[in-house]
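Input set for joint prediction.
Command: fold jointly, output tokens.
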Amino acid sequence: MPELPEVETVIREIRPRITGKKIEKLDVLWPKTFEHRFRIPLAGRTIVQVDRIGKYIILKLDKGNLIIHLRMSGQLLLNPAAIPAHLRVLMHMEGGLRMAFNDVRKFGRWYFVQSEKEVLKQIGMDALAPELTCTVFKKMLKKSGMGIKAFLLSQRFIAGLGNIYVDESLFRSRIHPLSVSAKLSAEAAGRLFAEIRKVLNFAIDQMGSTISDYRDANGKVGNAQNFFYVYQQQGRPCVTCGATILKQKISGRGTHFCPECQKLYGR
DNA sequence: CTAATCACCTGAAGGC
DNA sequence: TGCCTTCAGGTGATTA
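tokens >
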């Protein structure tokens, strides 16, 4: 469910409300939410900062870090009006503030670690990080023999993109999803970099995309799904050329693209 | 190193 | 109505 824009929307909402708060108690209704090897008591810790790298939410505590990944269907809800139907963890903070982790599919994970590196060592630069320049991005592409779809979905190089925003970024930069990363022209790579930033920032402005499960910390849906060019648009005409948008499995994921507008590089 | 497949889970949707 | 299959904003392990 959530990719970078959805996670960013959530942390912008929880940051001002939970920063500085002490954790009093944790109700764990689905223990596998916690990675066992990291299971350490959280009660008594204070949340000092709320950050994000890719799709990982990082709550910096006075001692250690609580890292949360929503995976496919996780939701963080602040003071929900009713008990959510698929409540997995309920965090009680001082002043009666509660943060519920609702997660239908039970894929979401919470990690409590001393250093965030323990969880994020394989994760690349955040897609919106200032250090990730177009030059750095092009160098990573040149070194990779992977297909561009797999490259962008893998979080090892750039963190934060998922299936929706990969498809939208490739369409907008006119690159076929079966292209080979290292074979992109310099111009194509530059377009891709720019469009990734535009797509993500636009989606953040729209409070993320809601296909089915995604809700922000206030339980509200996003709006970015109303502006998709290709994602779930198979069978409809391309907005640029009128050709029919196709959907086929690439890198194991349903992939949406225009066979006319998106050029194949390599392969 | 890259690619493909399965595993982890639940629920919605479509075919018959 | 009901049963069966397929699919889903993700990622990690395992196997070619």
